[in-house]
Each structure stands twice: as C-alpha cells, then as structure tokens.
Amino acid sequence: MTKLRVLFVDDDTELGNFVSMALTSLGYKVHFQNSLIGIESIIEEFSPSIILFDVEIGQDNGIDRAKKVLSKFKHVPILFVSSHTDAKMIAKGISTGGVAYMRKPFSITELNAYIRRFALDVNILKIASYSLDIREQSLFYNDTLIKKLSKLEFKLLELLISHKKALITKEQIAQTLWRVNSGEEYEANINNLISKIRELLSKDTSVSLKTIRLLISYIKMQKNYSIFRYLLCVMFL
C-alpha cells in the first residue's frame, strides 16, 4: 500500500522530531523541515499528501508563505498548526486556503484524524492540472474526465508520473508494459503510446514530455555510410 506523505514545517525542532517519529510509527512517510528555505523545491520533490504548516516559522509568517505555495501547488491540502488561537488568525489561515487550523498543543491522535480526513487520496497521482485515478485507470484534467485509459496507456502514464524529471529508457518501458528486457521489437508500439500520452497532456503547457535520443555507439562502415545506435529515453517534466 502506498504511504501517505506528510510534510511538517515548524521551527520547533524538538516538536518536529517527536511528531515525525510518531507519524512514522503510524505508517506515514514524513519529511520535517524547520525553515521555509527552498520549501517549493521540497514540495515538488517530496510530493506530499498534506502539509502541516506552523503559523510562525522563525521570523517568517507561515500563512503568508502558504498562500504562495497554494498558488503553485493548488491541490495540496495545508493544515495550519499554531499556539496562536485568536479568531482573526484562524480566519486568516482558513481564508488563505488552509483546510483546517489545529491548536497547539495537540495530541497525535487528533493530528492523525486530521491527516486522515484531509490528505490527498493515495490512489490519485497528480501532475500539474492532471489527476490519474489508479483504481479507475482514468485521466482527469481539472477534475474533468479526459479518458478511460487502455491498460498500456495507464501503465506508461503511471510510470512517467512516478518518475518525474527522470530519464526512462525504452527498456524500462518494455519491462513495465510487456515484461520483456529488450525494447527493440516494441519501439514502434512505444512511440505510438508516447504520442497518445503527449496528446492527452496537451491541455496544460506546463507539462512537457520529451523524447531524447542519446548516441551510444557509432560505427563507420564506408566513406559515406555509417551506423548509429541510439538509446531512446523519455523525460517527463
């Protein structure tokens, strides 16, 4: 079963370590961050199911920063945690886009209930404005169904989304789709599937599927005739 990913941002290192250990023991994958430095890059790499945001992080205002985070990662739920419990602060957090505002000190039982309530469905893979429903093998754009995918289309798209910004070779694709080690005889099928996936993802210009051919050998046969061997790779940006 895929683990829910919890990103906890709080300048209290002692609390952060305690919460991280407690949530890990409950089966979550946790990343604790005690500052806002590089937070957008961390979110992009960690792909959290939910973010726990302290309202005051050092000299920074967590609510103000959360607003910027939500402008880029619209679908990631943010749960604010703070010892500041006045009505105006709570209202500001909720109006900014927070799903809830939890008062410190809190119990792990309470926190676990909030996470279970608001965390993203682990059966949904997100990429920009697209959602891939793993159970239904369906692709959505801004919550509107684009297509019920074929078995091969689904397997390829799931592979690509799970390896964002990584080179995927045709051998990896062939192994995932057909359980074979060589992709040579399936190259035409792979190219056809990549074209279909690229067309499905054409609605959002922030998503880019690149096909890269890397020269791995060069054999000169005659004066004007040479044989080139390429490694076919795909990168999902």
Q: C-alpha Rg, in Å? A: 22 Å
Biggest sheet features: 5 strands, parallel
Residues in helices, as a percent range: 25-40%
Number of domains: 2
- The chain-level structural class is alpha/beta
Number of helices: 8
What's the pLDDT, averaged over the residues?
Answer: 85
CATH superfamily of the largest domain: Response regulator
Look up the CATH topology of the largest domain.
Rossmann fold
Global shape: elongated
Terminal CA distance reads: 26 Å
Low-confidence stretches: 219-223, 225-232
What oligomeric state do the depicted chains represent?
single chain
Description:
- This protein is α/β, with parallel strands linked by helices and 237 residues long.
- The chain has two domains: 5-118, Response regulator (Rossmann fold, 3-Layer(aba) Sandwich), CATH 3.40.50.2300; 155-236, no CATH class.
- Helix content is 37%, strand content 31%.
- The protein has helices at residues 13-25, 39-46, 62-72, 87-96, 108-118, 151-162, 170-178, 187-200; strands spanning 5-9, 29-33, 50-54, 56-57, 60-61, 78-82, 100-103, 124-127, 130-133, 138-141, 144-148, 167-169, 209-222, 225-236.
- The chain has a five-stranded parallel beta sheet with strand order 2-1-3-6-7, sandwiched between helices. A four-stranded antiparallel beta sheet has the order 8-9-10-11, covered by helices on one side.
- A hairpin with a 2-residue loop joins strand 8 (124-127) and strand 9.
- Helix 6 (151-162) crosses helix 8 (187-200).
- The longest helix is centred in the last third of the chain and has 14 residues, at 187-200.
- It is elongated.
- The two termini are 26 Å apart.
- Residues 219-223 and 225-232 have low confidence and may be disordered.
